[in-house]
Every structure is written in structure tokens, then in C-alpha cells.
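Data deposition worksheet. Section B asks for the primary sequence of the deposited chain exactly as it was used as input, without tags or linkers unless they were present during the calculation. Section C holds the resulting structure in C-alpha cell form. Section D is free text for depositor observations; keep each observation to a single sentence. Incomplete worksheets are returned to the depositor.
Section A, Depositor: J.P.
Section B:
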Amino acid sequence: SFLASYNRQRKEALVSGLEASPVTQPFIRLMECRREWRGTMTELLSALIKLIDNSSHESRKWPTNAKALGNQLRRLLPALREVGYSIAHERSSKIRTIILVNHNLE
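Section C:
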């Protein structure tokens, strides 16, 4: 049916977007054995950098700061949701915390 075909193509496009992003693999490696991660976007960028090699870090596609990482994650969010991850934000006083959740471990 048209709807089934549309949904299949939509999912394929989302997965393709995930595969194209340099952030996806380190993100999944970070989250594969944990249900939740909390921290600032700067802390997340540092955690992801520890999971990649230098050539990836030096790539023009790799986010150079927390704002750029946040922008990439916002674009990836629909695809990440499709594969079982969610991202939420929490603000207390001057600190903005990001909460990553792996729903695949529920």
C-alpha cells in the first residue's frame, strides 16, 4: 500500500541521514551499554571525542564546539528516535543539562 511504502522510504531516509553524520557512531557507542547519560553539551562533546580517532576529529564535518554539536543532534533527532534514542534538555539556574536516553535497554 501507499502508506507502507511511504513509511519504509521515510525510515530508509532517516537511517541514511544517521549513517552520513560523523556524530552517530560515537553517540551509539557512548549509549550502547547505558540507559541514560546526563551532562552539558560541552561534556557530551568531550565524551564523544574520546570515542573517535584523530582523523574523524579533524574532519570538517565534526562539530567544533558545543553549539555545533547541539545543531547536529537536533537535525539527527527524528532518526535517533526511530532507532530508540531520545534527547531532552533540562535547565537549572545557569546550567543547561542534556539527557540522552537509550530506550533499547528498557
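Section D:
Residues 28 and 85 are 9 Å apart (CA to CA).
The longest strand covers residues 85-92.
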